[in-house]
Batch of 2 targets.
Target 1
Amino acid sequence: MKQIVVVGAGYAGISFLHTVLPHIPEDVQITVLDRLPCHTIKPEYYALASGSLNERKVKAPFPVHERVTYIQDEIQELRIFNHEVVCANQTVKFDQLIFALGCVDNHFNVPWADEYTESIQTFGKAMKTRQKIDALHEEGHVVIIGGGLSGVEFASDLREQHPKLQITMLERSGQVLPTLPERVRNYVRQYLDDHHVDVMTDISVVMIDDKQVYYGTERKALPYDVCVWTAGIMPHPLSNSLLAYSNADRMNRVTVKENYELPYYHNIFVIGDCAASEFAPSAQLAHIQGLQLGEYFLTRWYETEYKPAPIKLKGVLGYLGKKTGFGLVNDNVLLGKVPNVIKSGVLWMHKHHMG
Ligand SMILES: Cc1cc2nc3c(=O)[nH]c(=O)nc-3n(C[C@H](O)[C@H](O)[C@H](O)COP(=O)(O)OP(=O)(O)OC[C@H]3O[C@@H](n4cnc5c(N)ncnc54)[C@H](O)[C@@H]3O)c2cc1C
C-alpha cells in the first residue's frame, strides 16, 4: 500500500481530498492529520471571536471513504529523511506528503505581541478571544491591530454584537484596506466612522504589555482591555524545514514546481498559504491549489497528461456586519448588500460542498 499523508485539512487539504476521493486506486491509502476533528471555514473565524456565529456553523464533517483515515493530533515535527510526521501522540510514516498547514500570525517582532494579544487565526484562538470579550464589562475597550480584511470584518461584526464596547483599530498605513481601490476604502472607512469604530491610521505599534499598546517614536500608550492582532500572517513555522529543498518567496512561502512538489525533494508537495505564488494567500487560492494537486495525482495514477490551467482569482469580498459589505470582483467594485449576499453564498456553497 502506498501511504499518502495530508497534513492540514483546511481549504487546500480538503480541496485536494475532494478531487481525488472518487478515484483513489486500490493500492493507495490516504491519512489526513489535523488538530481539529472536522474541516472549518476559516474566513468566518472573526465571527466566532465576535460572538455572532455559533461554532457549529463554521464546521463541516470530513468526507467518508474506506481508504481515507483521519487522525486528530497536533503535528510537531517533520522528519523528512525518515519520511515521518511526528505528532503529539504518534508518529505517522508517509510515501508522499502533502503539506497544507496554512499560516500563523506574524507579529513582526513587536515585543510581547505574541504574549499579550489575542488572535482570530486558529479555531482555538478565535474561541479564546470570544471568551475574553464575553468577560468584558459592556463598555470595555477592544483594540484591534491591523486594518486589513480580517480586522475590518471583525471590528464591524463586534460592533453589531456589542453596541457599547469601545473599539479602536490601529492601522500602519494611511488607510484601512490599503490594497483595495479608493472607493472601497472610503466606503469602509465611512461605515466604521458611522458605527463608532475609532480608526487610527499611520500608527506603528512598537510594543505591547499586559495593559497598553505603545506606538510611534514617542511610544504613546493606549490602554486596552482586550487587544486582538490581525496585522499580518506568515507561513506555518513547520514549513521552514522544507526550505532546505526549496527557496522562499518574499512572504517566506515555499517555492514549488508546477505540480506543487518541492524543487529539490521528491514526493513532498506544498499547497495553500505555505506555497509560494504570484498571488497573496487566500482561501480561493488554497482551494485552486488543492484542486490542481488532486488533478496531478489523478494524472499519475491514470497515466494522463497534467496540464494545469493558469490560476485566475475572482477577487475579494468582505463583510461589514450581517447586512452590508464590500468587494472587488473581476475588477468591479461592489458595495452594500450585494457583496454581503454573494460572500454568504460562496461560504455556504463551500461548507455544503466540502462536508
Ligand atoms: C478572519 C479571517 C478571514 C479571512 N477571510 C478570507 C476571505 O474573505 N477570503 C479568502 O479568500 N480568504 C480569507 N481568509 C484567508 C483564508 O482563510 C486562508 O487563506 C485559507 O484558509 C488558507 O488555506 P490553507 O489550507 O492553506 O490553511 P487553513 O485553511 O488554515 O488550514 C490549515 C489546517 O491545518 C491545521 N493545522 C495547523 N497547524 C496544525 C498543527 N500543528 N497540527 C495539526 N493541525 C494543524 C488547521 O487546523 C487547519 O485545519 C481569511 C482568514 C482569516 C483568519
Target 2
Amino acid sequence: MVHSQHGLHVLVCGGASDAHTWNLVCLQLLLEEAGHRVTNLGPCVPEELLAQECLTHRPDAVVIGSVNGHGYQDGLRAVRRLRREPSLAAVPVALGGKLGVDGVRDAAAADALRAAGCTAVFDDGDLAAFHTWVGGLAGHSAPTRTTADLGVRAGATADLGARTRATAGAPTGGSRA
Ligand code: B12
C-alpha cells in the first residue's frame, strides 16, 4: 500500500450498539485506496472507549458507521462525548449509514447530529459524497465521483458488499443474520 503525501490518519468505528462489521471494512478499503491510513476499532465501540482511543491515536478524522438503524442515538452520544475533550473539539467527525430504522432519510436527525458536533452526516450512506468530503479534508481536490465510479474503481469494495449480502443467509456462511 502506498500512502499519498497528503494521506490522513482516519479512525473508523461502529456505533456502540452496532454489531455490523462489513461496512467498516468497506470504509477502510475506500479510505486506504484514497491513500489514507486507517485505525479500525471495529463494531460496538462505546463512546468512552472511542474518546480514549482518539486521545491515544490523535486521528485527523473520525468516521462512525451505522447499519443497524441506531446511528442517530449512537452518533449523538459519541460526538457529544468527543466534543467534551478540549483536544478533540475540532477533530472532524463524520457519521454515516442508517440513522433510523424506518428506512427514510431524516433531515431533522441529521441537523441534530450536526448541532451536537458532527462535521458531516451522510445519512444516506453516500460513499461518493463521503469520498469527496475526505478528499477536501486532506487538502487536495478529490475528483467528483459517483457511487458507480467508486464501485468500478474499488471493485473489491463493491464485491464485498455483494458477497456479504449473498452469503449472509447461507447456512455455512458464518453469518447469523
Ligand atoms: C450480516 C448482517 C448481520 C450480522 C453482522 C455480522 C458482521 N460481522 O458484520 C449479524 C448477524 C451480527 C447481524 C445482526 C443484526 N442485524 Co443485521 N444484517 C446483516 C446483513 C445481512 C448484511 C449487512 C452487511 O454486512 N452488508 C455489507 C456492507 C458492506 O454493506 P452495508 O451494510 O450496506 O454498508 C454500507 C452502508 O451501510 C454505508 N455505511 C455504513 N456506515 C457508513 C458510514 C459512512 C461515513 C458512510 C459514508 C457510509 C456508511 O456504507 C456501507 C458500504 O457501502 C443485513 C441485510 C443486508 N442484506 O444488507 C442485515 C441488517 C443490516 N441487519 C439488520 C438487523 C435488524 C439486525 C439485528 C437487529 C437483528 C436482530 N434482531 O438481532 C442485529 C443487530 C445487532 C446489532 N447490535 O447491531 C437490519 C437493519 C435494519 C435497519 N437498519 O433498519 C438489516 C438491513 C436486515 C433487514 N433487512 O432487516 N446482522
